[in-house]
Task: inverse folding
């Protein structure tokens, strides 16, 4: 009787041992997830990318966590790969944006005095937030100190609403920046204002945070010149 | 005749309604919003010259959008949504790469002190 009771128990232990061994010999591997992790580490480890690509990097991290959790929970590989792919592309976007900011900062040679920060707006609104006001103030003093430089101000929206309304709204956003500059004594003909609606998103319109990044005005500073970009006729 | 029909019509209505509800359960709606966003992002990238500057990334975005549409046709709505979201992100990347390349061209021109860069800095019409 005593003998009969033991073999099943040892059998269970043996099976459990085998299962454990199988786990140990197959460490979690998902090519897309591994690659995304590597790319994210590289991007966030670069100080310029971490600074100028902060938003896409935060998105990348979020998606990386989702991919990792899906992997740990044995969810379908398609889901893991999807979130890993998003994280990968967002890390790449962060690098591309940072590279551009560096190139712009160097080509306008203004150093830390005026950052070419994007000015963000509320949904459906064209008035500047406090940070935007500060950016425009810095831009005004830059233009006063550099009378040979003109600027192009381009407004954008997120993808909420119709294309027609968005184009109009993006023009209003650019016009707001222009009018603040003019009120601070900058001649209107040095500023070309235009709007491109929901085009050229910098982030996905799929999330509220992404849409916020897209409601923006971008300022391009022209090279030292006698004619300048401002000579291209403002559209509104 | 008439009274007999009117006796039965609530039951008929119930059957039709539940059949419709079942059909709706079986096929989730296509991810229209995600597909539209991908399309918009691809158009924006093209307007910024991605076709010339970052064709590889633009191509990835376009082929993922095509795959997403194929998934819709096969009623695999989850896969369609995944692909459409990735397509949008790939198009944003292609767009950002194009803008960065332009900024780097301007930078090179500034370094060489060439006046030809007004053209590059001009906003799009």
Result:
């Amino acid at each position: 009787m005593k003998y009969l009771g033991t073999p099943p128990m040892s059998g269970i232990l043996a099976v459990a041992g085998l299962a454990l061994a199988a786990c140990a010999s197959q460490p979690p591997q998902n090519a897309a997830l591994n690659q995304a992790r590597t790319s994210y580490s590289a991007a966030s480890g670069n100080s310029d990318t971490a600074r100028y690509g902060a938003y896409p990097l935060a998105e990348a991290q979020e998606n990386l966590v989702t991919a990792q959790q899906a992997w740990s929970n044995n969810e379908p590989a398609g889901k893991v790969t999807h979130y890993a792919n998003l994280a990968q592309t967002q890390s790449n976007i962060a690098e591309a944006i940072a590279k551009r900011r560096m190139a712009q900062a160097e080509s306008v040679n203004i150093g830390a005095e005026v950052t070419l920060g994007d000015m963000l707006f509320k949904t459906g609104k064209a008035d500047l937030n406090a940070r935007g006001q500060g950016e425009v103030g810095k831009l005004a003093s830059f233009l006063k100190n550099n009378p040979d430089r003109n600027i192009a101000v381009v407004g954008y929206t997120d993808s909420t609403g119709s294309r027609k309304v968005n184009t109009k709204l993006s023009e209003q956003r650019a016009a707001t920046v222009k009018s603040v500059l003019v009120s601070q004594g900058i001649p209107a003909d040095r500023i070309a204002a235009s709007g491109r609606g929901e085009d050229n998103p910098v982030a996905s319109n799929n999330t509220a945070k992404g849409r916020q990044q897209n409601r923006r005005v971008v300022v391009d500073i022209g090279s030292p010149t006698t004619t300048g970009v401002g000579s291209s006729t403002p559209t509104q | 005749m008439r009274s007999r029909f009117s006796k039965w019509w609530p039951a008929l209505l119930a059957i039709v309604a539940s059949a419709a509800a079942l059909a709706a359960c079986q096929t989730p709606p296509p991810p229209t919003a995600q597909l539209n966003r991908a399309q918009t992002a691809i158009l924006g990238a093209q307007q910024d010259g991605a076709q010339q500057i970052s064709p590889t990334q633009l191509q990835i975005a376009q082929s993922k959008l095509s795959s997403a549409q194929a998934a819709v046709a096969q009623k695999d709505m989850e896969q369609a949504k995944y692909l459409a979201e990735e397509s949008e992100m790939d198009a944003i990347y292609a767009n950002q790469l194009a803008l960065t390349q332009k900024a780097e061209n301007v930078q090179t021109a500034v370094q060489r002190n060439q006046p030809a860069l007004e053209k590059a800095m001009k906003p799009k019409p």
Remarks:
- Chain B has a mean pLDDT of 82.
